[in-house]
């Protein structure tokens, strides 16, 4: 609408009073813990008044509540938690889009929301195909969130001290994508030289080149949030490494590799996972716990086994809460950040 100025949200609760009253009639939730649901804007419908929009400070508090309280619940499955969090984070992004907020405030909310979403999706696992959440819709929401955040960065305002981290997360989530790599390579050199982004570029290079030893060595060193972003590619990377080994080693009599070597090379969580991975691809084990590469036996059917990813992802949380991740995953080498706006 020409001349229309976006309002400033005035709702100081995680859920506006009108919605909270309606939900109390239906389900009687704790009013202090109710979080605004996502509601798709209807064509021709009036914009919500400021009293129904949460300002950036309340949106950030809402994201931190979701990070600290929801994933720790024991009365709901991972899929139910993922569905709930994804819905509430969509509502956060919509509230943000419907009001006036500075670029710095917008980036901070979007960064925190994206951190929580990545962690929840990683807990759900890459091969989840049933339950109350659609993995394809979750993936689309992650990509939309990256798009919103990167557009905010592109406006040129700031400062955005976590930009290198989240540009790196974008590349890790889209590992192997030519389009994503080209977008990152168009960023200023000073930003690309930051540790978080240069590490993501190194991971992408190793993945693209099929260098399994270097790739999984790098994946072991990634912080928790970066590991969440890349988890969806781990199964494919392991399958690719196994296929290359099969092409190099398969003979009519069968060359062998120790199972322990496979565990180390592919950063698996133990011999049981290594056995499952090899057997899922038609590779037998001999009596000495060695993988036998027989010509014509390697096969690929369906998705790669999901695996547990405790070494590469789960163990890295290290007793922290997702609130810690959402609030601040600053780069460890702060001295290497650009000193000028990029």
Task: Describe the model.
This is SAC3 domain-containing protein 1. Residues 18-55 are annotated as: Disordered. It comes from Bison bison bison. Residues 141-306 form the PCI domain. Residues 20-39 have a biased composition (Basic and acidic residues). The protein has 15 helices and two strands. By secondary structure, it is mostly helical. Among the domains are: 10-37 and 50-160; 232-317, no CATH class. Strands 1-2 form a two-stranded antiparallel ribbon. It is elongated and about 75 Å long. Residues 330-342 have low confidence and may be disordered.
Q: Looking at the chains present, what oligomeric state does this protein adopt? A: single chain
Strand order of the largest sheet: 1-2
Q: How helix-rich are the residues, as a percent range?
A: 40-55%
What are the secondary-structure elements, in order, as H or E? HHHHHHHHHHHHEHHEH
Distance between the termini: 33 Å
- Secondary structure class reads mainly alpha
Number of strands: 2
Main attributes?
15 helices; mainly alpha; two-stranded antiparallel sheet
List the helices and strands and how they pair.
Blueprint: H1 17-26, H2 56-69, H3 78-97, H4 103-124, H5 135-154, H6 163-173, H7 178-185, H8 189-192, H9 195-209, H10 212-221, H11 224-230, H12 234-249, E1 255-258, H13 259-265, H14 271-280, E2 290-293, H15 322-327
Antiparallel strand pairs: 1-2
Provide a brief overview of the structure:
With 342 residues, the chain is mostly helical. It has 15 helices and 2 strands.
């Amino acid at each position: 609408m020409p001349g229309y100025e976006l309002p400033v949200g005035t709702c100081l609760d995680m859920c506006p009073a009108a919605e909270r009253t309606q939900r109390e009639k239906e389900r009687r939730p704790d009013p202090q813990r109710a979080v605004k649901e996502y509601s798709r804007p209807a064509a021709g419908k009036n914009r919500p008044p400021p009293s129904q929009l949460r300002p950036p400070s309340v949106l950030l508090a809402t994201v931190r509540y979701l990070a600290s309280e929801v994933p720790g619940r024991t009365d709901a499955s991972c899929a139910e938690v993922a569905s709930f969090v994804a819905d509430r984070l969509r509502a956060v992004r919509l509230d943000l889009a419907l009001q006036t907020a500075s670029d710095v405030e917008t980036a901070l909310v979007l960064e925190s929301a994206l951190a929580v979403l990545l962690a929840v999706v990683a807990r759900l696992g890459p091969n989840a195909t049933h339950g109350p959440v659609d993995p394809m819709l979750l993936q689309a929401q992650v990509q939309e969130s990256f798009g919103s955040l990167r557009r905010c960065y592109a406006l040129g305002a700031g400062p955005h001290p976590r930009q290198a981290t989240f540009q790196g997360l974008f590349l890790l989530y889209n590992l192997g994508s030519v389009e994503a790599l080209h977008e990152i390579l168009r960023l200023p050199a000073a930003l690309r030289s930051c540790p978080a982004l240069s590490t993501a570029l190194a991971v992408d290079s190793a993945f693209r080149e099929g260098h399994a030893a270097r790739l999984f060595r790098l994946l072991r060193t990634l912080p928790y949030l970066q590991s969440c972003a890349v988890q969806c590619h781990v199964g494919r990377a392991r399958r690719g490494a196994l296929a290359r080994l099969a092409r190099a080693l398969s003979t009519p009599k069968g060359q062998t590799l120790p199972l322990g070597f496979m565990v180390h090379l592919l950063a698996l969580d133990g011999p049981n996972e290594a056995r499952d991975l090899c057997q899922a691809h038609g590779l037998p084990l001999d009596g000495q716990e060695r993988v036998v590469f027989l010509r014509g036996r390697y096969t690929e059917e369906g998705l790669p086994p999901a695996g547990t990813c405790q070494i590469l992802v789960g163990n890295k949380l290290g007793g922290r809460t997702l609130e810690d991740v959402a609030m601040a995953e600053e780069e460890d080498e702060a001295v290497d950040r650009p000193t000028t706006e990029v």
